[in-house]
Amino acid sequence: AVGIVALVFAAYYAEPLTVEVSRIDESMVGSIVEVNGSVETVSVKGGNVFVKLTNNNSTIEVVMFEQAAKNNAYAYTLKKGDFIAVRGKVNFYKGGLEIVADSLRRV
């Protein structure tokens, strides 16, 4: 049991794979990634932050749930045109890929 806990801990805190938005595909679902991009759109619903992130003509949806957003200095102040780095897990939702962000920062 201790070994499983250590493995989960190591996997969660491992350095994320830094990728271009265009490189994210279904084989990466479940992977922790970091992507940089420009905020195309941003909205807040129920405390959750939804961002359309664009990089080199490729776009991906990013969601930061309220629990993570409340602990992030920039989540609720994002605006179109901001250049940010997002770290999170690649997820498949409603027929498309997204990143469920656990952190973001301006770059």
**Beta-strand residue fraction:** over 45%
Strands of the largest sheet, in order across it?
A: 2-3-4-6-5
- The 3D shape can be described as globular
N-to-C SSE series?
A: HEEEEHEE
Helical coverage, percent range: 10-25%
Radius of gyration: 14 Å
Report the sheet with the most strands, covering strand number, pairing sense and barrel closure: 5 strands, mixed, barrel
Unreliable sequence segments: none
Structural class: mainly beta
- Overall mean confidence score, pLDDT: 90
How would you describe this protein?
The chain is mostly beta strands. It has two helices and six strands, in the order H-E-E-E-E-H-E-E. A five-stranded mixed beta barrel has the order 2-3-4-6-5. The longest helix is centred in the N-terminal third of the chain and has 12 residues. It is globular and about 40 Å long. The mean pLDDT is 90.
